[in-house]
């Protein structure tokens, strides 16, 4: 066969690949776990969640991937991102090249200033968390709600259930509030 | 019936769920990346069901405790990675010689020595077969997904009990740390094998009695059966022997109890092999890249198939040869500098065999596999 196989092949369309990225401590891995559980609680789709593991996970850009498919997921890692959430400038710079053409880019406008495209959704997740909920820690939950609202990858109900399932006792109200803000703010900018 | 709920688990956690389902009630280990979650989960779950978890002073102590616990009657497991597996080899050999069922999980990382603690590798493929010195038959199973890790760990315990032998579960960093949504098996859903206990009276009991299938009934310490346990070559009562007529009997027992029953151990998955001109052979996380690449390449008409080994030791010579029967070309994809391939070259000297290696600490990508298919076709 002529050496044309690589030119012809396509990344399978039955996979939806998400990367949640930021810096260590922003709760990207937890967010990816919650997203995976939300999908698991909602329907029969398969999920593989993985993260950068090792010295590079401390400081610098940290990432957590979620691959979703209605079929068996052969390859566990992301190949061509359908969605990139970037909570910091560094994570955007690191992972934007992995976002496929026409993929969804969501950024935290609190911390990201320089975006290499006009085609993106921007919300100030960190600022919203600080000013409207009172704790910066829930910025990841606001971002998850925005992802759900903007992409429909999971329903509001399923995400809410998953977030509350992971919320430490006493933080349920703040997490509920974070979800509401995320859903509402994202609905406003939805195209 | 209420809908069963799926759990989001890492491979390492799934391993413990499988082990407990299979009856594990003792775990001894020494934490090492990327296997530590196996110890953590064992420490959390075992006390709840009356089991025991102990963190030992090192890996040598860990496998020693596991062997002792098993002889005392508890299904036992330890988990480690390459450097720890190296330390355990002496006592794994002791388990082969004393015919002690136990499970050793090796979550492979890069080596030699402390190597790459956080990076994936399959470079312990041969160590799982030839690690301890001496002649023996090794059994190693190899999951590739979180769900597999449950069933293959259960299988490892069943095989250990069935054959009275240590069994290695060869995991790797990617499977160990990836989380997947899985259903855990329900009670009674999967078969559990327990070691055969003696029916003879303690007076008539012969510890390493020669039986038709080579496996001697095994009492637990404290049940009234007195016998000698030694790593020295021993007779059917467990006592040291130097007799030329007894030494081969013991060694052949160790070999034949496993080598004559490989159909109970071998497990291979094939995809698209019916009309394949090229077969990609792989195990563990490399197999996931191979399966993905096969799927991708098939969609554009390449006649390629994937062969995934769930058990690599004993090597499934005849079955693998049969499955690859018609295709003339074989790609062996592995995360090392070429270990599995030596077995494939041995059993298929008539085929064109190509190696696809990756040993930089990362998993092979499907496109790397597709590129190799393109070269070979």
Q: Gap between N and C termini of chain B, in Å?
A: 51 Å
- At the fourth level of CATH, the homologous superfamily of chain A is Pyruvate-ferredoxin oxidoreductase, PFOR, domain III
The beta-strand count of chain A equals 6
At the first level of CATH, the class of the largest domain in chain B is Alpha Beta
Share of helix of chain B, binned: 25-40%
CATH class of chain A: Alpha Beta
Q: How large is the radius of gyration of chain A?
A: 16 Å
CATH architecture of the largest domain in chain B: 3-Layer(aba) Sandwich
Describe this structure as you would to a colleague.
The complex is a heterodimer of chains A (191) and B (377). Chain A is of the alpha/beta class and 191 residues long. Chain A is 40% helix and 23% strand. Chain A has helices at 5-8, 28-42, 89-95, 125-133, 139-151, 156-166, 172-189, and strands at 15-23, 46-51, 61-69, 81-86, 99-108, 121-123. The longest helix of chain A is centred in the last third of the chain and has 18 residues, at 172-189. The mean pLDDT of chain A is 93. Chain B has two domains: 7-182, Rossmann fold; 269-376, Rossmann fold. In chain B, 36% of the residues lie in helices and 21% in strands. Chain B has twelve helices and 15 strands. Chain B has helices at residues 11-22, 36-45, 59-71, 82-98, 127-130, 146-163, 173-177, 247-259, 284-299, 317-323, 340-347, 366-376; strands spanning 7-10, 24-29, 52-55, 75-80, 102-110, 116-120, 139-141, 166-172, 179-182, 268-271, 278-282, 304-309, 311-313, 329-334, 352-357. In chain B, strands 2, 3, 4, 5, 6, 7, 8 and 13 form an eight-stranded mixed beta sheet that branches. Chain B is globular. In chain B, 51% of the residues are buried. Chains A and B meet through helix 1, helix 2 and strand 2 of A and strand 6, helix 7, strand 9, helix 9 and helix 12 of B.
């Amino acid at each position: 066969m002529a050496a044309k196989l690589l030119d012809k092949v396509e990344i399978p369309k039955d996979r939806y690949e998400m990367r949640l990225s930021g810096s260590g401590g922003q709760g990207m891995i937890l967010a990816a776990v919650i997203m995976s559980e939300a999908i698991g609680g909602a329907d029969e789709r398969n999920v593989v969640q993985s993260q950068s593991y090792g010295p590079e996970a401390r400081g610098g850009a940290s990432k957590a991937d979620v691959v979703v498919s209605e079929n068996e997921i052969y390859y566990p890692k992301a190949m061509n991102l359908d969605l990139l959430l970037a909570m910091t400038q560094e994570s955007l710079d690191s992972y934007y090249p992995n976002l496929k053409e026409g993929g969804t880019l969501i950024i935290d406008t609190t911390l990201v200033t320089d975006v290499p495209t006009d085609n993106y959704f921007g919300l100030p997740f960190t600022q919203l968390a600080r000013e409207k909920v009172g704790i910066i820690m829930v910025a990841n939950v606001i971002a998850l709600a925005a992802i759900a609202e903007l992409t429909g990858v999971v329903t509001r109900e399923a995400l809410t259930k998953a977030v509350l399932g992971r919320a430490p006792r006493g933080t349920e109200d703040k997490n509920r509030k974070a979800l509401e803000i995320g859903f509402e703010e994202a609905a406003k900018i939805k195209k | 019936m209420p809908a069963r709920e799926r759990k989001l688990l890492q491979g390492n956690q799934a391993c413990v769920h499988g082990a407990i389902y299979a009856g594990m009630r003792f775990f001894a280990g020494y934490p090492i990346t990327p296997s530590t979650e196996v110890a953590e989960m064992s420490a959390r779950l075992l006390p709840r069901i009356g089991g025991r978890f102990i963190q030992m002073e090192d890996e040598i102590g860990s496998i020693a405790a596991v062997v002792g616990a098993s002889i005392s009657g508890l299904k036992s497991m330890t988990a480690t990675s390459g450097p720890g597996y190296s330390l355990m080899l002496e006592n794994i050999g002791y388990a082969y010689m004393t015919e002690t069922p136990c499970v050793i999980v090796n979550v492979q990382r890069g080596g030699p020595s402390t190597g790459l603690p956080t990076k994936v590798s399959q470079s312990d493929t041969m160590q799982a077969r030839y690690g301890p010195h001496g002649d023996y038959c090794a059994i190693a199973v190899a999951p590739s997904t979180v769900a597999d890790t449950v069933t293959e760990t259960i299988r490892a315990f069943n095989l250990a009990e069935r054959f009275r032998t240590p069994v290695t579960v060869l995991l790797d960093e990617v499977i160990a740390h990836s989380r997947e949504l899985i259903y855990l098996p329900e009670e009674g859903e999967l078969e559990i094998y327990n070691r055969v206990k003696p029916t003879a009276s303690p007076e008539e009991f012969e510890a390493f009695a020669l039986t038709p299938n080579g496996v001697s009934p095994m009492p637990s310490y404290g049940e009234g059966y007195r016998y000698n346990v030694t790593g020295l070559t021993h007779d059917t009562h467990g006592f040291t022997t130097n007799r030329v007529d007894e030494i081969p009997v013991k060694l052949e027992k160790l070999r034949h109890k496993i080598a004559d029953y490989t159909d109970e151990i071998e497990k291979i998955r094939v995809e698209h092999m019916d009309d394949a001109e090229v077969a990609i052979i792989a195990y563990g996380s490399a197999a996931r890249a191979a399966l993905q690449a096969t799927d991708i390449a098939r969609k554009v008409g390449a006649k390629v198939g994937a062969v995934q080994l769930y058990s690599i030791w004993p090597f499934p010579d005849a079955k693998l040869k049969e499955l690859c029967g018609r295709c003339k070309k074989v790609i062996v994809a592995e995360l090392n500098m070429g270990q599995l391939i030596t077995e494939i070259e041995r059993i298929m000297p008539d085929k064109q065999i190509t190696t696809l290696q990756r040993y930089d600490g990362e998993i092979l990508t499907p496109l790397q596999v597709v590129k190799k298919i393109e070269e070979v076709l």
